[in-house]
Write a structure and sequence with these properties.
Largest sheet: 5 strands, parallel
CATH superfamily of the largest domain: P-loop containing nucleotide triphosphate hydrolases
Number of strands: 13
Number of domains: 2
């Protein structure tokens, strides 16, 4: 695929023609045509310098796993929650904890267990005998980074309380609702192997995660570096705080301004619609394998995640490659499989990859 060149600003709306690929729709309604991409690139290059600092701090603790690190940063910058799935020992918890240590923000870790109660998560009302009234004791959910470790071990009532926090960015304790701090990010882990004492996450809650990242094993070279780092006399280095929450919030606002061409918007819509109506895209054989397709939240998530990916690469515009790079993580947990697909051992990743191979790239 040839690399796309950034669109240029136009003083007036250009007349539509086959040779003219400039899009006249702007991010903000004005009369300047396409946004000034070069100026936006310069702003992003200045504002995204902290990304390299974050990667540098995380590399002190995490060997390899650059894909996982980038997805965590996309979740952080895209204001979306992230679900990490992988067998034990792949540094899921360590990566999340290290990210929180690199940002000057509040962090809390909640170990999900079958006997966990909603009050253990969000807090409860406590009676004060001296004042003869109830007062609110806030739970560990009131933090900027919340690590929900082994999230699929908690029962439905706890998941319901967490769902309100993830979607509404608030929790209800007694008669009152309390806003959660900004930024607020749930970073959850789950083990796909062990099923004893676990509860499958409700589809509605899974859909609230912007990304579901499946983590694989490190390479031989990376594992050798992991051994060396953990067994050295100095031990593992600790990340330093290099970014403030204000910088994160400002970056989130800037990401919204990144230019998303109308053709790429249609490409995102085509990918999502192909999971619902494969027949329309010449993929009729997938109809018997897909139980339900991705929701409109997937289209929104794919757009914002693509913008965040462009931000990580210091670009003021989204390319089809941004969409393709992040599509699997946005869609894999939003496509339901039929019994036929499970019987044939076909995964959601295989179906999404086939869809991406068939849907026309702009």
């Amino acid at each position: 695929m040839e690399e796309q060149t950034p669109p240029t600003a136009a003083a007036e709306h250009p007349a539509p023609s086959p040779e003219n690929t400039a899009v006249t729709d702007t991010l903000k309604p004005d009369t300047t045509g396409a946004p000034d991409i070069r100026a936006l690139n310069n702003r992003i290059q200045k504002s995204s310098q902290f990304v390299d600092l974050l990667r540098m701090e995380l590399s002190k603790v995490i060997v390899g796993q650059s894909g996982m690190v980038d997805r965590l940063l996309i979740g952080l910058l895209g204001n979306g929650h992230v679900l990490l799935e992988g067998v034990p020992g792949l540094a899921k918890t360590l990566a999340i904890k290290s990210l929180s240590e690199s940002v000057d923000a509040q962090f809390s870790r909640i170990q999900f267990t079958p006997d966990l109660l909603p009050a253990d998560l969000i807090g409860t009302m406590i009676y004060n005998q001296k004042e003869e009234q109830f007062s609110v004791k806030k739970g560990p959910i009131f933090a900027n980074f919340v690590l929900a470790d082994e999230i699929n071990r908690a029962p439905a009532k706890v998941q319901s309380a967490l769902l309100e926090a993830m979607q509404e960015r608030q929790v209800t304790i007694g008669p009152e609702s309390f806003k959660l701090p900004e930024p607020f990010l749930v970073l959850a882990t789950q083990n796909p192997v062990e099923q004893e004492g676990t509860y499958p996450l409700p589809e509605a809650q899974v859909d609230r995660f912007l990304l579901k990242v499946v983590i694989g094993y490190p390479t031989k070279e990376e594992e050798q570096k992991i051994i060396r780092a953990n067994l050295s006399a100095e031990g593992m280095q600790s990340p330093q705080k290099v970014v403030s929450t204000d910088e994160i919030v400002s970056a989130r606002k800037l990401i919204r301004e990144i230019y998303l061409d109308e053709k790429i918007e249609r490409y995102i819509v085509d990918l999502v619609h192909a999971t619902r109506n494969p027949d329309d895209y010449g993929l009729g054989h997938l109809t018997q394998l897909i139980n339900f397709g991705a929701s409109p939240r997937a289209s929104i998530g794919l757009g914002i995640a693509s913008k965040a990916h462009a931000f990580l690469n210091q670009r003021g515009y989204v390319t089809p490659e941004d969409v393709r790079t992040i599509a699997l993580d946005v869609l894999r947990h939003r496509v339901g499989l039929t019994f036929e697909a499970e019987a044939e051992n076909i995964s959601a990743e295989q179906l999404i990859t086939e869809i991406m191979d068939h849907v026309q790239v702009p």
